[in-house]
């Protein structure tokens, strides 16, 4: 049940317990138990909402920042990653293989704020060697959901 | 013109679905539960392969039997799912949908006056194809009490010295019924005793929710007398690509190929290239779609239970087949009224044969959100009928 349960709530965290139990063909109490276990084990880390901010009047700018760093003795990249992810405006930090080390996703209200963060906070960290900032211009698809356009049912209304 | 058109064709009734379609197409904001095709788009890697084939200029005829690579993949697929070995050279024919395979399979087998046993409710084309081939349809009216499975007793009583072929349409459209191995074994015994052929239409074989589908051709002594029909429409969400196939002993395929060669030439080339990709790398998509269908199936069965509507649990295809007998209307009347009152379109069971009377075919090839709205409307309708009757 675990995999199927996760695949359902990954797409729809709003779903109620009763409906979940119907879709899975399992007893409500068993589904609840499993959900609690998944939360406890940290498999489920939160229940979020996917928002297309572009459709609101609220300004948001997102940047992907490539960061090259010198790993620290005994701690590898973890220490520096922690120093970065503690900033609340940082949405995500990933350790990346290839040409750079950390990928930082930053969300701010304006371009200037992003520039300030990079120049004042990020670049000044001792182990940061260099940064490269990319601004997101448009989101076509996010978290497996296509934002660009609504999918319309073009099938005939009845067919054999 | 004054000269008469073909009487044989004139006497064929247009599909009951067509009639309902005309009714629906005049209305707006209809929520449909009426389709017989997946709501999923063809998985992208398959579409991409089709596009690639076009870009490469692969726009010529293929051999009459179909692309060699595709026949090899079909052969591999049937071996890995059913453990039946079909020779890709002469025992597999790629057709324009399963529908073509049904038509030419029947035509290749029967002589004038031969009888074809057709269990109903079932897909709409078996009976007209039988008539067009100058054979005689012998209908078995399947029963809800048997979960719409074909029983040995029903089959036995339909067989005459003229019986040539049994159509075996499982997993079934419109009932969602399946035949499990032990059901098939009982049927196979009678088929062998009476020396008749079987056309096993397994187009929904990937969509079963109670163990894996078993083909009757996998039972002892059955391969030699079976035409196995399958295709890409349902499992791979490829209805519009029009691609299916028939597997049978080469004596039968040789005859089918002649009709196919003169009437069709070959199945669409783009579709064939895409289908190779579907069979090579498509299993994960199929599993994912099956899981989604199964969730919707459970949702609908639960919804009918809550509405107190009598509905046997279907384990195949993407249909449920609830009974509407308690409302004292024909299924056509019920469907028309449901459409008028609540703007929900579902196909009357009678479109699939007389024994479908009193039932409604509900398709769950729709998103859960769509099904939720439809079930709410159906609930309103049912409550309205119940209160106004008492």
Quick rundown:
The complex is a heterodimer of chains A (160) and B (390). Chain A is of the alpha+beta class. Chain A has 2 domains: 2-40; 53-137, Alpha-Beta Plaits.
What does it look like?
The complex is a heterodimer of chains A (160) and B (390). Chain A is α+β, with helices and mostly antiparallel strands. Chain A has five helices and six strands, in the order αααβαββαβββ. Chain A folds into two domains: 2-40; 53-137, Alpha-Beta Plaits, CATH 3.30.70. In chain A, the strands form two sheets. Chain A has a four-stranded antiparallel sheet. In chain A, strands 5-6 form a two-stranded antiparallel ribbon. In chain A, α2 packs across α3. Chain A is extended, with a radius of gyration of 21 Å. Chain B is an alpha/beta fold and 390 residues long. Chain B contains 13 helices and twelve strands. Chain B has helices spanning 7-10, 16-25, 44-55, 68-82, 97-109, 126-132, 152-158, 181-194, 250-263, 269-281, 283-306, 331-342, 368-389; strands at residues 31-32, 92-95, 115-120, 136-141, 163-168, 197-201, 226-231, 244-247, 319-320, 344-345, 347-348, 360-363. In chain B, strands 2-8-7-6-5-3-4 form a seven-stranded mixed sheet, with helices on both faces. In chain B, α6 links the parallel β3 and β4 (136-141). In chain B, α4 runs parallel beside α10 and α5 crosses α9 (250-263). The longest helix of chain B is centred in the C-terminal third of the chain and has 24 residues, at 283-306. Chains A and B meet through α1 and α2 of A and α2 and α11 of B.
């Amino acid at each position: 049940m675990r995999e199927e349960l996760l695949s359902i709530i990954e797409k729809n965290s709003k779903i109620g317990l009763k409906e979940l139990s119907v879709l899975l063909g399992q007893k409500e109490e068993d589904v609840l138990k499993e959900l609690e276990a998944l939360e406890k084990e940290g498999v489920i880390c939160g229940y979020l909402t996917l928002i297309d901010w572009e459709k609101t009047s609220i300004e948001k700018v997102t940047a992907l920042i490539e960061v090259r760093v010198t790993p620290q003795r005994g701690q590898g990249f973890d220490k520096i990653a922690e120093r970065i992810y503690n900033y609340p405006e940082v949405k995500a930090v990933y350790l990346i293989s290839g040409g750079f080390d950390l990928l930082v996703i930053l969300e701010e209200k304006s371009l200037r704020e992003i520039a300030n963060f990079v120049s004042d906070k990020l670049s000044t960290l001792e182990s940061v060697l260099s940064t490269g900032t990319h601004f997101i211009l448009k989101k076509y698809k996010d978290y497996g959901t296509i934002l660009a356009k609504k999918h319309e049912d073009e099938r005939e209304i009845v067919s054999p | 013109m004054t000269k008469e058109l073909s009487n044989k064709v004139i006497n064929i009734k247009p599909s009951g679905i067509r009639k309902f379609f005309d009714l629906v197409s005049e209305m707006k904001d209809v929520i449909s539960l009426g389709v017989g095709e997946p709501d999923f788009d063809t998985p992208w890697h398959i579409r991409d392969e089709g596009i690639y084939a076009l870009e490469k200029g692969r726009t010529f005829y293929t051999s009459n039997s179909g692309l060699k690579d595709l026949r090899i993949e079909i052969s591999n697929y049937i071996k890995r799912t059913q453990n039946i070995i079909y020779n890709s050279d002469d025992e597999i024919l790629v057709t324009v949908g399963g529908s073509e395979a049904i038509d030419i399979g029947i035509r290749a087998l029967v002589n004038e006056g031969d009888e074809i046993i057709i269990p109903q409710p079932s897909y709409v084309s078996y009976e007209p194809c039988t008539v067009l081939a100058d054979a005689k349809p012998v209908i078995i009216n399947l029963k809800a009490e048997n979960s719409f499975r074909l029983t040995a007793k029903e089959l036995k009583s339909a067989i005459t010295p003229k019986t040539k072929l049994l159509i075996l349409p499982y997993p079934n459209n419109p009932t969602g019924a399946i035949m499990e191995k032990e059901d098939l074994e009982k049927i196979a015994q009678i088929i062998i005793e009476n020396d008749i052929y079987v056309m096993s239409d397994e187009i929904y074989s990937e969509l079963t929710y109670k163990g894996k589908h078993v083909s009757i051709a996998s039972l002892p002594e059955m391969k030699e007398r079976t035409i196995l029909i399958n295709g890409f429409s349902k499992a791979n969400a490829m209805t519009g690509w029009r691609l299916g196939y028939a597997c049978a002993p080469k004596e039968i395929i040789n005859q089918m190929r002649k009709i196919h060669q003169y009437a069709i030439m070959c199945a669409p080339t783009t579709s064939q290239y895409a289908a190779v990709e579907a069979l090579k790398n498509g299993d994960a998509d199929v599993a994912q779609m099956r899981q989604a269908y199964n969730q919707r199936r459970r949702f609908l069965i639960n919804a009918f239970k809550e509405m107190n509507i009598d509905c046997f649990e279907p384990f195949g295809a993407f249909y449920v087949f609830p009974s509407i007998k308690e409302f004292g209307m024909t299924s056509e009347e019920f469907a028309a009224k449901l459409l008028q009152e609540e703007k929900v379109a579902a196909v009357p069971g009678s479109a699939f044969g007389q024994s479908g009377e009193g039932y409604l075919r509900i398709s769950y090839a729709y998103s859960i959100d769509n099904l939720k709205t439809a079930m709410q409307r159906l609930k309103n309708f049912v409550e309205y009928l119940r209160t106004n009757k008492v």
